[in-house]
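Note to self: keep these together.
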Amino acid sequence: METGRGPMETLRELIMRRRSCRRYTEQPLPREELDRLIHEAVWVPSGSNNQPWRFVVVTDRKLLREY
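Structure:
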């Protein structure tokens, strides 16, 4: 069994601290941050490893409010 702050402990801490976000700021994310998040999102496991990723990034505030 692993002791200390190994990868599993770090993962466990991240899972336990996760919170749902229901309020958002009007502050836009820099393009570099959006690119980094998408790059990291493709590493999330998928069923049967079929990786059906499709990402849409909408930055137009007017369009976001319509939906």
